[in-house]
Amino acid sequence: MRTGTPARVGQYTALLAYLVFLAFPFLWLVSTAFKPPRELGSLHPTWIPKDPTLDNFRQAFDEQPLLHAALNSLLAALAAAVVAVLLATPTAYVLARRRTRLAKAVTGWVVVSQAFPFVLLIIPLFLVLKNLRLINSVPGLVLVYVVWALPFALWMLAGYVRAVPPELEEAAAVDGAGRVRTLVSVTAPLLAPGIVATALFAFITAWNEFFFALVLLKTPEKQTLPVVLTHFIGAEGVADLGPLAAAAFLATLPSLVVFALIQRRITGGMLTGAVKS
């Protein structure tokens, strides 16, 4: 059915309004990061700073160890992404190629597990990590991030595996290749775009995560960047608005850049998983 002109105009208007709604917090954050104190306290705020300054950025780095916290976040996010992909790739291959009841049950559980809220999981995770002596450690946090990223990684990679023609694997089997060699030499190279997109998605999830890091990391030198950002808020709930906005802006940039690079690949993986050959 062809969409009429009024309907199309309405669709684009709704889309534009939604984009403005999403962009407003970030644009206001950028504006606040460059405003001097007198403009931050003004009763008539403006979008564009009248006297832009970099003092908020200097003050943010002077008050809090942002670089060290960013390094902790980077290490945790990279490790979580690598481990999640290494575990998800062979598992997704099995789920996509073996259409058994067990595979269907596992796939259903993967989807259902995404509905569990953070609060429901934090106590069991805390007890498990306590028994493993991984509380207040970056490896313990990485373990939590891997567990949290695995369901979506499995679902996403399974869609890419289904897009690979089974005939290629059958030809490899005729040549004497086993399952493992077929996966490594034939299927994995074709999954490279999906593996990259999945790894970057896991990286973004871990980089932006706050709740688990807040609960599991107690020592200041081990805290991640999202947790350190809360230090700009005083005991009475009064925020040091300028430095907080500057630090939050810098913390947001990696996520924006990475997501801009992978958004097409993520969409492609979702659409691929929804199409049957």
Give the SSE layout:
Elements: H1 5-33, H2 37-40, H3 55-63, H4 66-97, H5 101-113, H6 118-131, H7 138-163, H8 166-174, H9 179-190, H10 192-208, H11 211-216, H12 225-229, H13 241-273
Helix pairs in contact: 1-13, 3-13, 4-7, 4-10, 5-7, 7-10, 7-13, 8-9, 10-13
Description of the structure:
By secondary structure, the protein is mainly alpha-helical. The protein is built from 13 helices and no strands. The C terminus is likely disordered.
**Beta-sheet strand percentage?**
under 5%
Cα distance spanning the termini: 25 Å
Number of helices: 13
The averaged pLDDT comes out at 82
What is the β-strand count?
0
Largest sheet: none
Outline, from the CA principal axes?
globular
Radius of gyration: 23 Å
**What structural category do the secondary elements indicate?**
mainly alpha
Q: Provide the succession of SSEs.
A: HHHHHHHHHHHHH
Low-confidence stretches: 269-277
Residues in helix, %:
over 70%
Summarize the structure.
With 277 residues, the protein is mainly alpha-helical. Helix content is 75%, strand content 0%.
Using brief descriptors, characterize the structure shown.
277 residues, mainly alpha, 75% helix, globular
